[in-house]
Amino acid sequence: MAKHVLSIEIGQQVTKIVEVDYKKKNPHVYKAITFATPEEVIEDGVIRDKDVLAVAMRSELKEAGMTEKSVVFSIASSKIATREVTIPNVKENKIGALVQATAQEHFPIDLNEYTLAYSVQEAVKDENGKGFRILLLAAPDSLITNYYNFASEMGFNIESIDYYGNGSMQVLKKEIVLDYCACIQMSGSATIVNFMNEGQQIMQRTIPMGVFSVAEAMVLSDTCPINDMDSACDALCRDTLVCKTFDYEGLMESPMGGRMTQEQWSQMSESQQSRKVATDAVGEILLSVIRIFDFFYSKNPGVDISGVYITGMGSKVRGVDELFSNELHVPAHRMEHLVNVSFPRHFSEGLYNQTEYIAVVGAAMAPVGFEAKDAAELVGRKENMQTVQLLLGLSIVLSIAMVGISILNYVTAKNDNEDLTARKSSLSYINTIYTENQEVKGVHDQLAEVYYMTVSNNEKLDELVKALEKQLPSTMTVNYFQSTGTGINMTIESDDDISIARMLMNLEAIEDSHQRVILTDIAIPSVATVTEDGKTKYDFSVSANYTVDENVDSPFATEDPEQEEQPQ
Questions:
Q1: Which of 83, 84, 151, 551 is deepest in the core (most CB within 10 A)?
Q2: What are the beta bridge partners of residue 488?
Q3: CA-based Rg of the chain, rounded to a whole angstrom?
Q4: What's the predicted TM-score (pTM) here?
């Protein structure tokens, strides 16, 4: 089995490839690339023009310095049928045979033309006793063979073929271990909605729209001054084009956040049209999400979703979390980093963040394992031939050895065996030390994971409050203060307007004990004047975001030692 693989997802618009550890619980990504899929080479997961795609992929792999030949493919296609089924409690090595025997009950199709695969979701217990809940999949033989043919043209050795939805779930179930929650993975061309409970998948649905659908709507709109997909994607991630609600709440605010220049004010009308187009396009996806939520609630009465996590390319779209929170009536959070998958330093500064690679990373962790039938037969015949050749060779060697071995060599070998046996017995204590070391490492990893889950920007709150007491002008009175996990909100009353500008400069200069700026994106949406007893006072609100500190060190962190061989 390969130690590293290239995990590949060939999408309608983009192709993603990562070089990653194979079948590890907490894998490391060594390299990752994303490039535009050549036009019209793939349709619903099927590679239509292998030659054009092969030329483009070879060029990208060469430029990235990726030479690995063992690959895992992650396929997203409506041709793959999926079912969540419960099977009786049997030994794991018997599940495959049980799936083959009962698959026809779940798929009303001719299974002679389909390849089956499955993924065990969890052990369950109901009125019928113990069992397993599994994700059962059926893919057309032609689709699987299509990828084997492309691998042959590229000189790849296929380790496994995975389903896009399974790969996503393999990562998410380790990242999100809370009570009932939903993970909405918005990629370029599709959106996957996963409902989870304590790291276990309950339901999964796919929406055939993603960030590229929003960008395309902006490009095609007559009122939006954007002419290409790249510019539209950049604008979605740079400016707050998505309004807070379906009825365009926040439309009059600056899409750049904070104060605007005179030129930006002059472009306000044009910006408002762009925001309406972007909000309507995201709203199309959100309406489908709402319908899926309604269906989930109908199937699970009494269950409340505690939070929504937005991953993938969609987590880069500014404002999408507020719109989802307000319309779903559930707190929504953008998740851009993975805890249990390590990436190179300074990875993904642009549109494609870590969570956009969830499906390809998960495919390398625990793929469902589609395998072409003719490929399995070919491997079987090859293995049989190798076995015959091996037995023949061993027979010849054994015959020669039996003739050539002398009594003296036999005695020498016997003495050597006795010496080695005694040495092995004297070193047996190493196994105990190795076992204890593994147990301590396991406790260490658990403590490190718990530590990272407790890290919050609110840890700077005490320093921030002390700094505010020093920095705020004496002519101001704070009437309201709120701190969230992402920033602060304040309502302030001031005796003069000059001190407001001074306050902005002071807030931008606030640093913590490590000389890192605490607040960013400081904004004053409006200022109201109030006259009492002939005196004019100014009421205004202030909002700011915490600066994200990506250099959080765990007290449990250690250097990654080279993997030791397990004693024999």
A1: 151
A2: 483, 544
A3: 30
A4: 0.59
